[in-house]
Write a structure and sequence with these properties.
This protein is an all-alpha fold and 176 residues long. It has two domains: 71 residues; 100 residues, no CATH class. Helices cover 69% and strands 0% of the residues. The longest helix has 24 residues.
């Protein structure tokens, strides 16, 4: 994860490239805090990527997006059709009575949701593929969002789950 010094170095580079843009000390603190969960080398490459395609100083969200695009390019999530091809290969390899083994954990999760035996015995592969693709895309998007979420927010969500107490009103009839 980026140290404060690494983040400040990136901000200095950005300040040198975009000299007309000035950050206040409180804005610098926010940048440091909001970028601290990104590895320093990746943050630097994200800044360089931004410099190569924009004439404006980057917002925190732009740097985070560029960093996670770099991470995903290095370790891409297989496409929905690549995942479906893996499922089809496992159906041919092990059949309905075997235990499939997937390299792609998202594909394994979707197969578990849809049912291995159902997929093996189905007589409507077009509909099965459509259902698989829809479920796979939803899981992949959820995973991308989860990976990109601020670490502090992830920790806060975990604390809310651990408390197991709803914070929002349950519906009609409740008073504040």
């Amino acid at each position: 994860m980026a140290t404060e010094i690494e983040t400040l170095r990136v901000l200095k580079i950005l300040g040198d490239i975009y000299p007309s843009f000035h950050l206040s000390s409180s804005a610098i603190e926010v940048y440091v805090q909001m970028l601290s969960d990104i590895p320093g080398a990746i943050l630097e490459q994200a800044a360089l990527d931004h410099i190569s395609r924009s004439t404006f100083f980057p917002a925190i969200a732009e740097l985070r997006q560029a960093a996670f695009n770099i991470l995903e390019a290095a370790n891409p999530i297989p496409t929905d059709y690549e995942a479906w091809a893996e499922v089809q290969a496992e159906i041919r390899r092990v059949g309905h009575s075997g235990k499939p083994q997937f390299k792609n954990p998202l594909a394994a999760q979707v197969v578990e949701q849809l049912g291995w035996r159902y997929l093996c015995f189905s007589e409507n592969p077009v509909a099965d593929r459509a259902h698989f693709v829809q479920a796979y895309q939803a899981l992949a998007e959820r995973q991308r969002y989860s990976v990109r979420r601020l670490q502090a927010v992830t920790q806060f969500i975990a604390a809310l789950k651990a408390a197991n107490q709803p914070l929002l009103p349950g519906g009609e009839g409740e008073t504040a």
